[in-house]
Amino acid sequence: MTDVALFGAGRIGKIHAGNIVRQPGVRLKYVVDVNATAAAELAQKYGAQVGSAEQVFGDAVVKAVVIGSSTRAAAAKKAIFCEKPVDLSLARARDCAQAVAKAGVTCLIGFQRRYDPTFAALKDRLAAGEIGEPQMLLVTSRDPGPPPVDYIKVSGGIFKDMLIHDFDIFRWILGDEAATVHATGSCLTDPAIATAGDIDAAAVTIRTRRGRLAQINTSRRAAYGYDQRFEVLGSKGMLQAGNHKPTEVTAATAQSVSLDKPEHFFLERYRVAYANEMAHFFDALAKGAPVKTTIEDGVKALELAEAATTSWREKRIVEL
Amino acid sequence: MTDVALFGAGRIGKIHAGNIVRQPGVRLKYVVDVNATAAAELAQKYGAQVGSAEQVFGDAVVKAVVIGSSTRAAAAKKAIFCEKPVDLSLARARDCAQAVAKAGVTCLIGFQRRYDPTFAALKDRLAAGEIGEPQMLLVTSRDPGPPPVDYIKVSGGIFKDMLIHDFDIFRWILGDEAATVHATGSCLTDPAIATAGDIDAAAVTIRTRRGRLAQINTSRRAAYGYDQRFEVLGSKGMLQAGNHKPTEVTAATAQSVSLDKPEHFFLERYRVAYANEMAHFFDALAKGAPVKTTIEDGVKALELAEAATTSWREKRIVEL
Amino acid sequence: MTDVALFGAGRIGKIHAGNIVRQPGVRLKYVVDVNATAAAELAQKYGAQVGSAEQVFGDAVVKAVVIGSSTRAAAAKKAIFCEKPVDLSLARARDCAQAVAKAGVTCLIGFQRRYDPTFAALKDRLAAGEIGEPQMLLVTSRDPGPPPVDYIKVSGGIFKDMLIHDFDIFRWILGDEAATVHATGSCLTDPAIATAGDIDAAAVTIRTRRGRLAQINTSRRAAYGYDQRFEVLGSKGMLQAGNHKPTEVTAATAQSVSLDKPEHFFLERYRVAYANEMAHFFDALAKGAPVKTTIEDGVKALELAEAATTSWREKRIVEL
Amino acid sequence: MTDVALFGAGRIGKIHAGNIVRQPGVRLKYVVDVNATAAAELAQKYGAQVGSAEQVFGDAVVKAVVIGSSTRAAAAKKAIFCEKPVDLSLARARDCAQAVAKAGVTCLIGFQRRYDPTFAALKDRLAAGEIGEPQMLLVTSRDPGPPPVDYIKVSGGIFKDMLIHDFDIFRWILGDEAATVHATGSCLTDPAIATAGDIDAAAVTIRTRRGRLAQINTSRRAAYGYDQRFEVLGSKGMLQAGNHKPTEVTAATAQSVSLDKPEHFFLERYRVAYANEMAHFFDALAKGAPVKTTIEDGVKALELAEAATTSWREKRIVEL
């Protein structure tokens, strides 16, 4: 039986808790959260106990931590399931990666999109050569609405907060590293976001070392919901990953023919991805196998987020 | 130069006139219509003259008639482009077929759907074996709204007026003849249609001699417009012919994701089909080649329409 | 805590077991199956014990049975989750319904399609008046391949085995009862099915008391997989329920633009439906509320299946 | 009767000739081409004569020229239907615009995409406020294959040759002018294109004066054909313009569910657009009304093409 501690009893913590307890041979021992009520409720729901970081890192039976403070967890020799970004500071993220490497512990970074059935199938088919060599990638990544401005202020900005996932998709799909990054953006939906020093719309272009091209477009607000698509042009064709819809109902009326809007937001859209990701984590742990999304991936995505932030702020092309 | 006479200067007559004058080596000589104004306008538009049936059938330079009274035209040795149904009376239709055969003239029946790019492509792919042997056919055929009740009264009823096309599709696609026909229907949109002795919704089932199955559903009123689809299940797959849309615009809003409704009605939906059909007629004429939709096809479709009418009226399965 | 006994440890039994143990406050106590190994494996997986019918019906703590022999379970005052069809014999099914009524126990018939997100959403939107009054229903219901002929021999035939679900959809969606049923069919894929006295392709037409029309088409073998669609034409528009796909990947190559085939078969297609159905059962039980799919629904669907069988065998329209 | 001279009897010249002769009250008088055979064939087909530039500009009855040398035509007071780009030299294009302004003649630039039914419908709906204020534009513009390298050498490069249309779409849809342009690209399909000093894949980002963002991606070779899509994100939703398909056939087989590839290339995809464009030209001429695509639009698009070329060559963001 593998005992696990969960840090965070919020929205995503609840998802992770549900997925943890569904793993065979895995037990949720602790729930840790500064919000004591939230921690208690979640702990009770799954027969776990409320704990503190001290307890968790001092408890030898705890083998893994989820959404953990990675450096400390590494030092305590726990396997780590770490939400992105590793850290808003690239220096600290690199330190953390070093600590993980030194401790030799498993560390999975929560780039859950790689575990999404649609995205993973596309990647598999690309890897199988269905469209030849990848040449161009277009990523559309839009939220249904912005988070509170107070969150935006401490979020690290749109590139670290939202596009970190898209930078990971870029590396995963094109299989190449960035040579240059260009980013531009605007604040078009809410002036308070600009006041907070951030933007709500961005356009990023990456050229890889092998000359492949990627364009990412993002908005903090799409009136029609959560929009998560990408397409790859290859030498022999194109693969597109489309949005998921709640149902397959089509309505034809005197006004129009209409379909469902995309799944509302990330909790719905990536529900299966979160479950797959957690299963992969414990499966890799059980087998001593490497994880698919490593802390190095987390650091690399953060480097791109920093480069994009610099490009946007300084209005110049950044070379990597 | 092939001189042609056009009978009928109404909605469909105008379409045919436009298609006639676009054929190389073809000249529209006469327009004949009891509505003298309509005839004059159409004749003037295309440099033709208003004529009478007597003139047309007595004029040796006229080689072909469009939407002609077929029996008389056959007797006058004119090639005939004949709108469906050949005649509301099956006996007269058979007489006409005999007259055509005896005269040895070309006679094309205006089953324009066979000349539609989507339907024709499906047929070609079916014939090429893409889905193996056809087993089942589903036809959806709905009008945006019913014609005036005065027209319905003289139309021969829903099976001869509307479904005649679908019966032809059935024969063309399944490549087999009907063994039994079952039809049922209702008047669901306008009681005046029932008063006129007709229905506005029908469901027809045909079993062929080789055991293949066809279902046709029809309505005189679909709130979302003209709906013309069919699908064939074969031993190796399925081919579906979908509706055509005016544009490929998709709109995603807070309410829904919406597409265009289908092309409004038959003049729009079958615009290309009508043009292809006319080109085929004159091409066959020029080459002395057989036409794709013969008067025998017209008679066979009418037989099915009669059988369906009988099945509906007498509430019994009709054997053929 | 509600203790439950599960009868059947086969394919669908496993699905139900997994859904039972996920219900809050519900415990799987017994697994019963003539296949002792299957029963033992499933029981062990979920911490239940292997039991016999005698044990189950004699154990007062067992409050509910899943896929149970309904009459006996009713006599033992257990709540019943009963797979369709209630019984292949209409007489016995009616006896069972009477026994359930007399015992006053909850009895849910496993018409899982009503719990499918797409189908349920369509029904809700129909009920909300989005397309006005329903007029016509088209149901396509095709399996990826036939079951073993030995199964077909004891299955009750295509109408009781496969179309029972579609007959339920018909009643649920059109909200009206059948006045006449016409069915025809053929054996087109495997002569052994004909030898077993059954068919593999069927076309059914139902006219309701209010004149609404339904067409059902079915095949035991669709080369492209499991095909489960239906559409309703209403006075103000149309609602269509389409197939679900495993992923939203589109591939464009020199050959074609292609999408995923539908979910492979019922275990995949109705995975969510089975879970929703079980949750509904225990929720209704906890609240003492009526279930959505009653034993009367089971009997009514069976009546339609019998009528269709008669229509097909005797080549006549059956009045109800 | 308006007499017209057509310059160019090649691929696009033939399309224009067909559209010219279909305009009511318009006569094709001259066909001019250095390829005497091509000129003669086309002239004969439509009852025109082969002419020279001298004849055309000296013939007072000629009221309009199509694909004409614009400056000279302006001097000769002819109305001009001018293919894009106005000129590969921005200076000469501006001179030409001045000549046109001075002569006061009608001059339509052949940005045919604005006359495409899908694109025009999207623009109309955008203008009607359906998705609020436009914020972001994504344009995908890919050819099925590159032109001969000899053509590429004299084409002005990918930005003037291919993207000139997309720059016009940008201005038309976002209704704003560019503030900054960033372009990057690669040669990924054929090294001969690089040797010719050009690229075959490009990614362009434009930020407008009002902060709106546009991304254009292009490739000279998409294995699946001609790909012409764009989408606009607005404050209240999104409008997408998709590809047109030759037919609406869907095939479901054991391998996949597949649709038609997009219309093969521009002659097919923009067939209706070319016809609409020509009709608009003569309609504007007849009414003395302004044309929708002016020589100023041609100059503006060329400015963007130059800026993009500079950005790509000098690896810097270009301000306008």
Describe the structure.
Four copies of one chain form a homotetramer. In chain A, the strands form three sheets. In chain A, strands 12-11-7-10-9-8-15 form a seven-stranded mixed beta sheet. In chain A, strands 3-2-1-4-5-6 form a six-stranded parallel beta sheet. In chain A, helix 5 packs antiparallel against helix 13 and helix 9 packs across helix 13. Chain A is built from 13 helices and 15 strands. Chain A is α/β, with parallel strands linked by helices and 320 residues long. The first copy, chain A, is 39% helix and 26% strand. Chains in contact: A-B, A-C, A-D, B-C, B-D, C-D. Strand 12 of chain B pairs antiparallel with strand 13 of chain D, so a sheet runs across the interface.
